[in-house]
Design a protein that fits this description.
Layout (H helix, E strand, L loop, with lengths): L1 H14 L11 E12 L2 E14 L4 E10 L2 H6 L1 H5 L2 E3 L5 E4 L1 H6 L2 H9 L8 E5 L3 H6 L4 H18 L7 H9 L6 E8 L2 E11 L2 E6 L1 H11 L5 E7 L2 E19 L2 E16 L8 H30 L6 H8 L1 H7 L3 H7 L1 E13 L5
Parallel strand pairs: 1-4, 1-5, 5-6, 6-7, 12-13
Antiparallel strand pairs: 1-2, 2-3, 7-8, 8-9, 10-11, 11-12
Length: 361
């Protein structure tokens, strides 16, 4: 009995293990990828980490251009030129070209989702122009992936762009009543910047938002928790540190459409504008009204773009109805794009100014 159990255990040990095990020198460690659709399939530019150079935080890197009729073929073709298989388990960022995103991202999404190596926390972004060209505008291969991935995280935390990892974008893609958004990457004299949002209808890029409207969109979606709110005032400007933000949505049926009202609560600290650290009650109230008016004005502009120009529910009003009012969604959901455009969507900002920077007076 014991002998039989021992033999079974030994057999299990022999059968167990990693069937896909390869030595490090047999793999290319991919830190980032640029993806463009071309006439005959896909063109990729991989940033390959050189683990033998640099530090743990900033390893060296090199470019690896690839092409194939499909994404899987393109990634697999790397072994033919380097003798090593691309490993995607450490990939931090995937950037998609503008025209590729307009043609649809489902091929890329399903490839990434089905690849066992790829982490669902992978950061996604849309480039202004070709993704490969944008990667190559960086000073070196290392900066393209590592610095941009850090910039994407910072932009998400600061409210400059959506923090939209693969798992969250896939969730929005599959859920009813909401359209996906991704951070946008643009180029300027100072280099490459991540700011603003790329808007999708289904899996296709259909529009863009500037950073100011993106900030309000993130407020309404509950994705903004800190950042800086800047308001023009005369020849100058007033700036507030956002220390907290919550949003609540209420919906009800109204005639042929929906009444949707957002309540956005902001906790602010003044970081530019006051002449002294101490704020009088009168000045404090003026600044609160100034911030309130700015948020509500931006929200009106945002809704005009989403409802009239692009016709996409990037706010997720439909998702809220689908989750909380099945009867209303049964009546409105089948033609939600039309019903969203006809809905009356408003926002009321509740602003509390806690003080001026460190003083908190």
């Amino acid at each position: 009995m014991k002998r039989g159990a021992g033999m079974a255990l030994a057999l299990c040990l022999l059968l167990c293990g990693c069937k896909d095990y390869r030595e490090l020198d047999q793999r290319d460690i991919v830190s980032g990828v640029a993806v463009d659709r071309v006439k005959d399939g896909y063109a990729l530019l991989l940033s390959i980490a050189d683990v033998t150079a640099g530090s743990d935080d900033n390893p060296g890197a090199r470019w690896l251009p690839l092409q194939g009729a499909s994404l899987a073929e393109a990634v697999g073709s790397g072994a033919g030129s380097t003798g090593r298989q691309a490993y995607l388990g450490h990939m931090q960022l995937a950037v998609v070209g503008d025209e590729t995103a307009r043609g649809g991202l489902d091929d890329l999404l399903w490839y990434l989702q089905r690849s066992a190596d790829v982490h669902m926390t992978l950061a996604l972004a849309v480039a202004e122009g070709d993704a490969v060209a944008l990667f190559q505008k960086q000073e070196d291969a290392q900066a393209a992936a590592f610095d941009l991935s850090r910039a994407a995280v910072h932009a998400g935390k600061a409210g400059l762009a959506p923090d939209m990892p693969l798992y969250r974008f896939l969730s929005d893609r599959q859920e009813e009543g909401i359209e996906g958004i991704l951070p946008r990457i643009s180029t300027a004299e100072g280099g490459v910047h991540i700011e603003g949002a790329a808007l999708f209808r289904g899996d296709k890029l259909c529009g863009r938002l500037d950073p100011k409207l993106t900030q309000v969109l993130l407020m309404a979606r509950g994705l903004l928790h800190e950042g800086v709110l800047t308001v023009n005032q005369g020849e100058g400007s007033v700036a507030f540190d956002i220390r907290g933000c919550t949003a609540r949505l209420r919906t009800q049926e109204s005639g042929d459409g929906v009444l949707a009202k957002y309540e956005i609560k902001l906790s602010l600290e003044l970081c530019q504008g006051a002449q002294s650290d101490s704020l009088s009650a009168e000045i404090k109230e003026q600044y609160e009204k100034l911030a309130q008016s700015e948020v509500e004005r931006r929200f009106v502009e945002l809704c005009t773009l989403l409802q009239k120009t692009y016709g996409v529910d990037s706010l997720g009003v439909g998702r809220h109805i689908h989750r909380h009012d099945a009867g209303l969604w049964a009546r409105m959901g089948e033609d939600w794009e039309k019903n969203f455009a006809a809905s009356q969507i408003t926002a009321e900002a509740d602003v509390v100014l806690h003080g001026s920077g460190r003083s908190l007076k």
